[in-house]
Amino acid sequence: MTNESRQIAKILLSIGAVSLNAKKPFRYSSGILSPVYTDCRLIMSYPKERKLLIKLFSDTVSSHGSFDVIAGTATAGIPHAAWIAEKLSLPMIYARNKPKDHGKGNLIEGVLKKRQKVAVIEDLISTAQSSVVTVNAARNAGAIANYIFSITTYNLSKSKEILKENKVKLISLTNLSDLSSVALENKHITAKENDMILQWASDPSSWGNRMGFE
């Protein structure tokens, strides 16, 4: 675990942006049960923590090359992309999930030129499908989009497959394993609960049944 990952994990846990509960798991809209619930939108309401996170986020983006444009995923990645673009003095765009049904029918909002290098910003990587929508929107516009930067990731096999299929590299500030480890170190969860959380990441769809919740 890097120092940066530990810092981000502590922030997310301290403000409740990530909740871990292996005893009373959360029900996702997909129907599956999970011991982890993530809502990085809460970062907007914590200026001190937000400032540190955006500094680390911006430094991470800068360390992986020279980018021309910062792109936010709709809608969760937009505020983070805006702060990073401001920090790095770069243009920003965001991509819709589908084109507007009125006006010019834009899929991308903002100015994106051909051959520009794009850094896609996401808050959470679950399956990576929404992030790849932004990547492909930028590519279809003639830009170069080979990197997705996220605050955290569940490291699910599904996301790894999708990222590989679309030939895009994920750089995440922290991940579920590190978050769970930090929670264990601070005695927010037990060793057994930590193991249950990591088991969920290996097979989310059957976890609830395997753990006796269904």
For the termini, the CA-CA separation is 33 Å
Largest sheet, strands/sense/barrel: 6 strands, mixed
Provide the structure class.
alpha/beta
> Residue-averaged pLDDT, rounded?
93
Q: Helix segment count?
A: 8
Strand content: 15-25%
| Rg value | 18 Å
The global form is globular
Topology as H/E string? HEEEEHEHEEEHEHEHHH
- Count of DSSP E strands? 10
Question: How are the strands of the biggest sheet laid out side by side?
Answer: 7-6-5-8-9-10
The percent of residues in helical segments reads 40-55%
pLDDT < 50 runs, ≥5 residues? none
How would you portray this structure in words?
- This protein is 42% helix and 21% strand.
- By secondary structure, it is of the alpha/beta class.
- The mean pLDDT is 93.
Salient structural properties:
214 residues; six-stranded mixed sheet; alpha/beta; single chain; 10 strands; 8 helices; two-stranded antiparallel sheet
Quick structural gist:
The chain is an alpha/beta fold and 214 residues long. It contains eight helices and ten strands. It starts with a helix and ends with a helix.
Q: Topology, please?
A:
Layout: H1 3-14, E1 18-20, E2 26-27, E3 33-34, E4 36-38, H2 47-62, E5 69-73, H3 78-88, E6 92-95, E7 108-109, E8 117-125, H4 129-140, E9 144-153, H5 157-165, E10 169-172, H6 176-185, H7 191-202, H8 204-210
Parallel strand pairs: 5-6, 5-8, 8-9, 9-10
Antiparallel strand pairs: 1-4, 2-3, 6-7
Helix pairs in contact: 1-6, 2-3, 6-7, 7-8
